[in-house]
Design brief:
single chain; 16% strand; seven-stranded parallel β-sheet
Length: 240
């Protein structure tokens, strides 16, 4: 007998890295509004006005010991989302910058996955990675970011295969052009901004909140057959 899809995340325990602002902040609010228990882990301090129901943890995802220590402090977890990241336009051709970008986006992803695998195994939970439209095509402005996000899609597939034996699903969201502090320099460059808008079918940048529905869906029982995929959420940018 057919059952109604369950899109609820109420009562789930969710950890979001890079969750003090941008996409991570939007995800934190969305999960909280849908009845989840939210932990935000960020290298930056909590912002003024942060919802007091959100538990904050200081974390540098490049630090093995710090990630392991956080895993000890977190007793229960159903959903892990790695949103922490940075870009350094045109500086990423420097070897040290390139390595740092990969450490945050890619190696940090693996650190978190390994550290919290036992938690997600216990809850039969899920890991949601953050790719990018640059997972599918390059960028002369941010070569390290593009390389890392391309690798995140492949890592998502590998982890999905490896973790399925523990009942853990691993998927990714690939955002397009989103209004965040990370993309502010691009939006403030008139020539670049006009090219972006011209290619987006809807003709405008998206808000970080526009991505939250995809995260809620991937964390809910309704997506139980979805595993090892990266879902573009870019307003049709990659299709145009």
């Amino acid at each position: 007998m057919a059952t109604t899809p369950d899109f609820s995340v109420r009562g789930k325990h969710v950890l979001i890295t890079g969750g003090t602002g941008g996409i991570g902040g939007a995800f934190a609010k969305a999960f909280l509004d849908h009845g989840a228990h939210v932990i935000v882990a960020d290298i930056a301090g909590p912002k003024d006005g942060t919802d007091p129901r959100i538990r904050y943890e200081q974390l540098d995802v490049r630090d093995d010991a710090a990630v392991e220590a956080l895993a000890v402090r977190v007793s229960q977890l159903d959903v892990l989302i790695h949103c922490a990241g940075r870009v350094a336009p045109f500086e990423e051709y420097k070897t040290e910058v390139f390595k740092d970008i990969l450490d945050i986006h890619l190696v940090g992803n693996l650190r978190l996955a390994n550290a919290f695998r036992p938690h997600l195994k216990a809850s039969k939970g899920c890991l949601i990675n953050i790719g990018s439209m640059h997972s599918y095509f390059g960028s002369p402005r941010v070569p390290a970011y593009s390389a890392a996000k391309t690798a995140v899609v492949s890592l998502t597939k590998s982890l999905a295969i490896a973790f399925v034996e523990d009942g853990i699903r691993v998927n990714a969201i690939a955002p397009g052009w989103i209004k965040t502090e990370l993309t502010r320099p691009a939006r403030e460059n008139p020539e670049f901004n006009s090219r972006v808008i011209a290619r987006i079918p809807g003709g405008k940048w998206a808000e970080a909140e526009d991505l939250a529905g995809a995260a809620i869906f991937l964390a809910s029982p309704a997506s139980k057959l979805i595993n090892g995929v990266a879902i573009p959420v870019d307003g049709g940018y990659s299709a145009s």
